[in-house]
Amino acid sequence: MTDTRTRNGAASVDDLLTLVSRVADQARPGEELEVYASRGVETDVRAYDGEIEQLSSAASAGVGIRVVSAQRQGFAYAGTLDEEAIAETLAEARDNATFATPDEHLGLARPDTVVPASLDLWDDSLSSLSTSAKVTCSRTRAPGPWRGPPWSVRWTPLTTRHGGRGRYRQFDRHHGHGPAHDL
């Protein structure tokens, strides 16, 4: 994987696409591989009367690998983009397939000639919103206890051995949260 990094040190979307393509290229004869990688950041803010009570931010990354071989399917996931862990995940997915029940209809989707709809709901200004700006937004809510909906940004490319490639990116600001309460 190239060393191109985003400002927080995480792999860029292009790096993730390179990674999943490289892993998919390791398919053995008679084997189908589907690989996806994902990375994201979530920020959660709790405020009371305009004062921040709790602020947390977490980054996550991982890779999932599906293997179809001898009419059997195996899957494995690793919560890291470490090269050793990815190699182990591929080996685990292959091993898991050996325990699966055969299914003559198993197989991965193959690219077709249908052109996907062009729908881009991405907003660069929201995905790069600073933690400080998120805190400011949370402080401007109504008086009393308030837990803001988490801010979540995620990038996920996917590829198959057959050349199926795609990627998506999403920014979530889950609405519907309101007054804070713990269950």
Can you offer a commentary on this structure?
It is built from four helices and six strands, in the order H-E-E-E-H-H-H-E-E-E. It is elongated, with a radius of gyration of 20 Å. With 183 residues, the protein is of the alpha+beta class. The chain has a domain at 13-43 and 58-106 and 148-173: PmbA/TldD superfamily (PmbA/TldD fold, 2-Layer Sandwich). Residues 1-9 and 175-183 have low confidence and may be disordered. The longest helix is centred in the middle third of the chain and has 16 residues, at 83-98. It has helices at residues 13-24, 83-98, 124-127, 131-139, and strands at residues 31-48, 51-69, 72-78, 145-147, 151-160, 165-173.
Keywords, please?
single chain; 183 residues; alpha+beta; PmbA/TldD fold; six-stranded antiparallel β-sheet; 4 helices; 6 strands; disordered N terminus; disordered C terminus
